[in-house]
TrEMBL record:
Source lineage: Bacteria, Bacillati, Actinomycetota, Actinomycetes, Micrococcales
Gene Ontology process terms (BP): 5-phosphoribose 1-diphosphate biosynthetic process; purine nucleotide biosynthetic process
A single cellular component GO annotation: ribose phosphate diphosphokinase complex
This protein's UniProt keywords: Kinase, Transferase
Xref: Gene3D superfamilies: 3.40.50.2020
This protein's name: Ribose-phosphate pyrophosphokinase
Organism of provenance: Arthrobacter yangruifuii
Amino acid sequence: MFTAYATVPQGYTVHSAATPMSFPAGEAHLQVAGSPQEIPLYLYLTGADANEYMSAAMWIDYAHQGGHKVRALIPYLPGARQDRGVPFGAKVYANLINAMNADEVVCFDPHSPVMPALVRNLRIVDSSAVIAQVLRNKAGAYAGVICPDAGAKERTARTAAALGLPLYSAEKHRDFATGRLSGFTCEELPAEGRFLVVDDICDGGGTFMGLAAATGLGPDRLDLWVSHGVFSGKASQLRQAYGSIYTTDSHPGAANPDVAASITPLISHLI
């Protein structure tokens, strides 16, 4: 979803008067109502719809032609998981973002360091402070944070430190040729207490179902935070394994009613 914001002479921040449209032939453009006296500020772009990226690029050009600098708030970097192999999806999407020509790009909890290194003028917002704020009244109920795999080690360590909780580690094996997951293990956990599993992305939920099975714990003792809730395929089965599921509005999939996640709006954390 693409939304653009601007300030008006009265001092308020409002939706920009320049809104997306398309010509009959399919080209993206903007429709500007009247002669707006606005100062473009930033745009908020969630999900991975290429058409919305084109609309965002048009809005940035509109802002620049008026002499204004703007930020592109893109919490979910599309292609961040395509950080290896052929085609090199992370680079293709990074080129698309760079072509938008924003004066600053802001993302949230990127999957790996690969794509952020390819995006110009990028500022990264870490997830640990957001998680700590969202769970500030619940952190005392947890006995620890669980890292689901080696790729999540650094982010879960930061989260555990922010919450003042011990960190426990799990492992898995992924066949990159097929995407199939196997070999889930988790270090021994305390006999009592509730645990928070933390990761960046949940797509179909296979990693987290496998982890839950490896711990031997049920929804009465497991909660889940994922920064980007795609929640596709069999993700609804997560309700069988996790009591509370937390995510953000960085991807439209977060609103999957069968997952019923608690969704944190990110825009105030990124501007």
